[in-house]
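User: I'm putting together a teaching handout on how sequence relates to shape, and I'd like one worked example. Could you take glucan endo-1,3-beta-D-glucosidase from Phaseolus vulgaris, show the sequence you're using, and then write out its predicted structure as tokens right after it?

Assistant: Happy to. First the sequence, then the structure tokens directly below it.
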Amino acid sequence: MALLLLLFFMLPLSISASGSGDAFIGVNIGLDISDIPGPTEIVALLKAQSIQHVRLYDADRALLRALAKTGIRVTVSVPNDQLLGIGQSNATAANWVTRNVIAHIPSTNITAICVGSEVLTTLPNAAPILVSAINFIHSALVAANLDQQIKVSSPHSSSIILDSFPPSQAFFNRTWNPVMVPMLKFLQSTGSYLMLNVYPYYDYQQANDAIPLDYALFRPLPPNKEAVDSNTLLHYTNVFDAVVDAAYFAMLDLNFTNIPIMVTESGWPSKGDSSEPDATVDNANTYNSNLIRHVLNNTGTPKHPGIAVSTYIYELYNEDLRSGPFSEKNWGLFYANGEPVYTLHLTGAGNIFANDTTNQTFCVAKSNADPKMLQAALDWACGPGKVDCSPLLQGQTCYEPDNVVSHSTYAFNAYYQKMDKSPGSCDFKGVASITTTDPSHGSCIFPGSHGRKGTRINGTSLAPSNSTSSSCLSQYYYNGGFFTSSLGLVVLFLFAVM
């Protein structure tokens, strides 16, 4: 709850191939977008957000040229549809490296190559040539004296790990041992990393309530709710760590112990269809905010505490052309026009990566919230919360529209701004959420806004703090009747934590 309430900061750090050093957060850039931004627009957004690490799903020349001289560290990819040709011909691999890497070095800071993506699970017919493709690409880098600068690997779905909990029992699907063993030998010999796509959203969704939502979202758990590996007695407080440690143990099952892990994809969708009720803005915000803090704190995992697990968030933009469930279109941090889908929040990271660079955030009532809960929260804000709710009185600037959602939004936001957007000040027992859209309308200008709806102006106008509980709570009650004094005490009790 409180984790959603401080502006998101991202520390652009780095990781060494050996896994020592500091972790970084990067973003994936997919472009299945109908109104696709141009390369210069994409790079302008990256620079505005101080994003220092990106992963491309191909090696788009125009985008690589736009990234030149930015210092941004770029991972390029061999798409799956080019894998067979490269895996069967050293010359084809060398030509690919010449066109897509050497042509852009050193102006564009290419630091890694992903050879295919989730090949074992999405393109199993290409699995036999995957290691050959990796070796051919690496050989071309060696010939160009770039093998120390650019690491080569291939991202895998975490579904190739079987019996993943407890992590100490995990092993790779042994069908793929003829691929995994030589691949791990290559990663070990070249100082590269095992690339893994980790999606607690899917683990949670497929677990049929066996995984608590809080456990998937990195929310704090009481000790008795933590998952314990009975073999190692290690405690797990989130799905992400459990999956990463399962990969470590799966490598150990094949006698590999010193290969670091990089998470090439992780995230949470902000919207889904009726079968995906947990694909929400709040959950996406919570997951990504907590993931970022977890990674940048160099927390590591229970098996390898303090060992960097650098991670790329999936993804920069919502991709409206993606097929599949509705959630597939809604994993992005930004819309195609550069507007944030939501504002991530994180404390203590240091350098700025704010997907709302103006710090313009507002607290609004959830339109689908229980009206009684909204009313209780509204009465608390206008009473014990000491918000000046006089603009909501009949005839005043914010009276219309005269409904509990609109009036609650005004009161919630006034409290949120009055509290300097502090942790916990926009929750109200779950009926409020953060937005970057200014809710001001007409002559009703909300606290925190210096303009009309849609403006983006720096600065925060704090709500007056000299109101007292003498503001009549019943003036803001709807649908007939008033709260009794006893109910007012219940309201005070429920929201005293605010």
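A couple of points you could highlight for students: Residues 2-329 form a domain with the TIM Barrel fold (CATH 3.20.20.80). The chain has 14 helices and 15 strands.
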